[in-house]
Design a protein that fits this description.
By secondary structure, this protein is α/β, with parallel strands linked by helices. It is built from 11 helices and 7 strands. A hairpin with a 5-residue loop joins β3 and β4. The radius of gyration is 17 Å and the shape is globular.
Amino acid sequence: MRHVLAVVNQKGGAGKTTTTVNLAAALVERKKRVLVVDLDAQASASSWLGTSGQAELFELLTAGDGRLEELVQKSSAGGVDVVASSSWLVGLDKALAGEVGAETILRRLIDALPDRWDFVLLDCPPSLGTLSVSALVAARGVLVPVEASVLALSGLAALIKTVETVKQRLNPELEITAIVPCRVDARTNLAQDVVDRLRERFGKLVTRTVIRETVKLREAPSFRKPITEYDPHGHGAEDFRAVAGELLKRTDRRS
């Protein structure tokens, strides 16, 4: 069974791309086949994984026909495949304005993918526009990276409400798979307080593992490597491998 997961948070800097890229690599270490679909016009995941796109994904989403498989590229991270993004996606909301059923186009494209991948990770833009909603319609699960800051908590309620609305109206299979505390500075009481508040509010949805803030994690994109390759024995790699283990248990239970 293929697991399609939207990695989403409308707040910039929450760790969506960091989570997508490094979790993909950690899953590959566990012998899973992973496809990353970069839906962010900033194309950070595409760049990190050593790929680039032009207008192809934009044209596919606006035309509504064609095959997503044709846009798949090999990445610089061994075993991770990518559908690359580009700045063309900035104009997608305008291009699809008034288009009936625009939110379902991505789902049709993903449903038509061959069974080459165990996981499809959708790296969403930092907004709740057409692309993020399309990802929620296409996915069965949602991963929510949350920065360990007070401001990050304030936007989480709105995101949860959006997920519930999409579930009720467009995708009854949608569930929040996990909330992942990211950029946790273990040296500060504030970070631990935020994690504690997350656990109080959302319980078992929050992963036991938190992603600790490290210099190596910030450096990894410059070297076009996931943290599991750039610093395989460091805290970042350790954390993402642990999150991958938790994710596999949660998706196996759902299957």
